[in-house]
Queue: 4 jobs
Job 1
Amino acid sequence: MRSLVLSIFCLTSFSYCFSQLKFTESEVQKIALLVKNIPKSAQHNSNSLVSEINKMGKTELIKTLATYEWITHSIAYDTKALVKNDVQARSADEVIKSQTAVCSGYATVFKALATGLGLECELIEGYAKGYGYETGTIIEEPNHVWNKIKIDGIWYLIDATWGAGSVSNDASGKLSFNAAPNMDWFILDPLVSIYSHFPVESKNQLIEAPLTKVLFDKLPNLDPIYFSSGFLNSTETMAVYKKSSAFLPPKLYNLNIPLKINEAPKTIKLSKKDSLHFEIQSSEIKKLYLTIDDVVLGEFKKNGDVFTYHGAPYKSGLLEIIADLQVEERLVLLEYNP
């Protein structure tokens, strides 16, 4: 599990930060280990969990991080309840005891633990582009619940449900939960979360000039990796979409690895005038290749953990950037002109 990549944080060699929040990787690792070592006997109700988390640190950020870590590593998404549409409200202790929940259960536990830890936390009901969403679909009814939490006097967004993993249909067509705890949905930049999460109450967007539901439905469902990698700037990109919804970036797949994209074409549709210049940085990538219609055109040059490619102008076809990872996987990272 590579959840130490804090996807919406500005990444340096030594620390992670978002707004006024800042902590080092070693601090994150310490909290993750402490959460992992919470006695099983203390994981049956909110009061006992609050007692254990209180031992881990005094700051509001540490308490929030520990709460998120425990929930995303301990609670599995209840796919049976989703299929049966049995999403009735359950208490935090009921969810903690069963360690299964749908989104409202995750958010309820997060709020209960945060409140017990002396933090101000609220539930957010809204529209989310989650399982089953297709681009361009208008979501008619609220279908998701997440949280906002106040840390050192400032409100932040958190989605522990999506931070725990995802749901998908397996080979037999059965809906299953894919446990993949991650930090992508911890302390979200409001200008990033708004591509997939739209609160019923506009104040919960935490955006100075809130978006309309009409614009939200037109926005592409952009994963936080677009912004955490530096490929797109959240402020600049939102300014573009407020003028026109025509802009569409390439498909960027979240491989759950440290990633910086310093140079790459920004639009999914390439023209014959576009030069194929890329600079991508990651310690988890062994090799990168550029392919067109599944034919390898060339391998990126590697200098340390920086990969560069400077090729001839694009001609035609499906262009993909393929990554060989350190864990012996070959996966698509970027995709143009699908």
Note: Residues 254 and 326 are 16 Å apart (CA to CA).
Job 2
Amino acid sequence: MQPGGQQLNESRKAERLELLTGTAARGPSAVAELAPRRRLSAGGPRPGLPSWTHLLLLLALPTPLLACGEARQLSLPFAAQVHNKPLRCDASYEKIGASRTSLQLQDFKAYVRDVALVRENGARYPLVLEQDGHWQRDTVALLDFEDGTGNCNTGSPELRTEVVGLVPDLDDYTGVEFTLGVPPELNHKNVEWVDPPLDVRSMWWSLTNGYRFLRLDVRAGGNRPYAFHVRADGCTGTPDIGVHCSAENQGTVFLTGFVPGQSRVVFDVAALFAHTDFESSGDGTTDPVAGCLSSADDPECAALFGQIGLGGPHAASGADAFIRVE
């Protein structure tokens, strides 16, 4: 077992490897045989059985590695910070942005999907997510950096600052990649009818526009709200006939210098807002909203979008990056 992995108990590990190797050896037809069991099970997959998408991802792991039992469970840690200080609901942070104003957190959540580790030779291996029925399902995971205390009046006391799953047990991972977003085929569902983690109402915008992929609400200068909500834009149609969006706004982030068991992915709010003038944001004329709600005509979005991988894969690095490895 390499650093950063967790030892599965022997019986559970044997069961999971038997499922992985047996299914992988037989090919996609074996997955198809398992799919009806999932559909007949009320309330989603039975505990211990991967979902249909989960099984497809397991097949993506190289069969020789699985056959040798060379897979490990990995916890990928995330952290929200302001410079080098933890981002907290009960704190105030000074001299933030171009306006050098104070800042308080109100809400911060994000959906990540298609998480993968990258080897030194550039090969990518998907992190096959643990199906916990609450924070993670199929390829999607929810991160929650606020605990409902202090300035965060969200009614959401639980924190979630990790993504957990299986990867081949290799010792030359040097990077991590993920997309901030929700798979397009899941983005236009009714929040009342879906399973966790897509059942969080505060992350849902509408049937047509789908979910907020990242929601960051702060208060600047004492009592001035400022919002950064990343979602699809220019969407038309309805879920029953199909929805088309001119901008999906799902950015892929690729980070180098990542060492499993030693590194974490940091979201640095001070770096994100380094050039933001909170005092002039949302003037009511050219800029009707204080912040960015992902509208194409919002003048504040362009500078923020570049930091979350929009406009092509974003190789964020260095101490001044919003999303970086530490």
Note: The chain is about 15% helix and 35% strand.
Job 3
Amino acid sequence: MDEGAVEIRFNGVRYGFWQKADVRESVDDLCATVQLSVTLPGHGDSLGIDANTVIEVLIAGELVATTRLDSFSRRVGAQSHDLSLTGRSLGRELVDSQYSRTLSGLKLEEIARRLCDDFAVPLEVAAPTALVPDFSMQCESPANALINAARTANLFFYPTPDGGLKLAEPDAATPVATLIYGEHLLDYEVTDEYRLRFSEYCVKGYDYEGNSSHAGKAKDDGITFYRPMQMVADKHGKGRGGCARRTELERNRRLARAHRLELPLQGWRYQAAGDGGEVADWRVWAVNTQVRVVIPPEGIDDVFLIGDRSFRLDDRGGHVTRLTLMRRAAYAGGEK
């Protein structure tokens, strides 16, 4: 299967000479990140790109990210020049900006839509949301407030190909593909990142209207020494649970992130099955979709959620997709 090239499209121009590429996105990040580079003869130029340029990134002819530049560098030698650019999707303004906003009596989706409208960031809402009685930011990152509110509701904010955000529940649909060690996978990596885990979690809050304090606690029985994490509850998500729920979700998400499975796959696409089981078109891998993984040496035959996805291109590995998989149960409220 010919995967084609990595291309960028801007101001009516298409540019597809990139020799190295890395296009990443995650269910835990509002922005997709893009790194591209190439070496060409001559002195070159800036390609006509500046800080205001909106750049579409295409993988195998399919739009995967819409970005603005974080940096662009041109290194010039006697006979050649190197071009390197890094960028993030349009949602980066919600991450980088320091902003003040007060809203009352709105659902989370309505709050997100107003903030996204302020920064001209598209928003797709694919999950019901509850009322957030009071939402207030003072000179802070909108991303932090949105992510905290979404996590309290056990929802994801993650980037979409048009540069915007999607607000959705952890995917529960049928796995999009089955990956079998020795057939689709030549190698894999199992990571236990113990630094992400704590022996106990505590979220503390205070209800100023009711003049009362609240706290929620949860333990990780796999950490037998004292290693606490104490957090102050934000008020953005209090309409969807309380301190106890926030504490359990924090523990469960950290368990999911701490024990993960990473799979390198040749190519950028998978062949999806149609609704009737027939073979459908080739599609690029996407976060917040499920895959079945079979690795007999590890005793693995289970369904996992794609948490991170990276498309890579270089002269050694060629076209590679790297998936980071996690147990969906951790995001659905249960332990892994």
Note: The chain has a mean pLDDT of 88.
Job 4
Amino acid sequence: MADDVAGAAADPGAAQAWTRAARDPGSAEARNSGAVGAPGTNDQHAAVASDLGSPAAVGARLAEHDYLADAGLATAIFLALRTQRPLFLEGEAGVGKTAVAHALAQILDAPLVRLQCYEGIDASQALYDWDFPRQLLHLRAAEAGGVDDVDEIEAELYDRRFLIARPLLQALETSPCVLLIDEVDRADDEFEAFLLEILSEFTVTVPEIGTLRATVPPVVIITSNRTREVHDALKRRCYYHWLEHPDFEREIAIVRARLPGVTQRLAREITAVTQSLRSADLLKPPGVAETIDWARALDALDVVGLDPDIVMTTLGAALKYREDQQRARQLDVGQLVRQALAEV
């Protein structure tokens, strides 16, 4: 891996291939994506780092797209790009893991391809499948037209036009792009092993067609809510970062960035209450996403400042389980609000 990075630095032309493909979809770099047997390069991610020359530059660019990253996350993104590794983001739900991929796609001016993982997902749902209805229609049309060459018909049936590209193949054929593999902890162990193979070479072999290779490998973001432990083999392939809930001032800034119409007072008060709820014994503590949703709901109600009654009537914006809402009421929401307001 170190040799790959050094090679990219020593070859400015190769190091700028990712950027050329991003800025000019008609360039050779972009056109060659997905070509059967096309030679791939593993050092072209370094081009991204040429535009994002430091963790501070990454943080500044993220902020331009309303994602306020701390120094740790900005450094993780920078190093993942520089070392050409997938970025594995783990943390509680709602802390902004998925939003990293969206913001990065905007920064790179590249399409975002998302693979949403779930229990039972397999390779055909993530990689490719054949369009059997269209193949059957083509077969019937060939028979009606009097075509009787079996080899010719078979070759036509397994042409690229009948191949349905699922997210992983879409990412390999779209240059450049950001590939988001979301909530990988929901998938099973076999799917993890499959992902590891794909992410190692960024190639796919379709027996009927040949090898499809990404000319410009995608920037990969993998997220996990840690509902189960992901195997070490996949994590070792990635740059790992645990995403914490933001501190008080940064969470206020996030709310104001996402919802410019919300007043500073309301942003401070709702953030204070949300962070107080996180310290309670809840099944699903509210994340940053819930803070934003709650602030949006209160703003829609033209609420200027919090009081216990409005908190009680809008708890559904932040707490998604009945047991958590009951727990919040047992905590005396009025006292919680007064305590939170006293702290700000």
Note: The mean pLDDT is 82.
